[in-house]
Design brief:
Strand order of the largest sheet: 1-2-7-5-6-4-3-8
Number of domains: 1
CATH class: Mainly Beta
Strand content: 35-45%
CATH topology: Cyclophilin
Number of strands: 8
Shape: globular
Structural class: mainly beta
Order of helices and strands: EEHEEEEEHE
Length: about 130
Amino acid sequence: MKKNLTVLFTEFDETVSIQLDDSQSPKTVKAILENLPVEVNIHKWGQELYTDNTQIAIQEENARAEVNLLDVAYWPEGGALCLFYGPTPINKDGDKIFPYSPVNVVGRILFDGNNIIDRVKDTTKVVIKQQEQ
C-alpha cells in the first residue's frame, strides 16, 4: 500500500510531497497514518531533516543502519520522522547515508520543486498530513 503525504513548512507556506510505502515496515506505516496529522518542529543534521519526538510510538521494524538518498524513515530511538536528502555528519563514505541509529524506512521524498529542504532552519514548524486528492 502506498499513501502520499504532504509536509507543510509553515514558515514558508510551502510543501514537500512524500510517499509512504508499507513494503518494508508495515506496522510503522500504519502507526504513522493513525497519528496524522503530525505537528512538530523539524531539525537539520547534515542533510537529514528530523522531527521533534512525535506521538508515534513503535519499536524497530526491519530497521536499517544505512539508508538511500530521499528515503523517509521513522527513528524509534527519537520517536521522530526523518527525511534523508544527503550525507549526515557521521558519514565516512560520501556515497552512503547513515542515520544516527537504525531507522524503519517507510517511504520516499517525491518532490521538492522549490528546494525548500535546503532552506529549512532548525526548529521550523511542520505539519505532516495526508495529501488532499
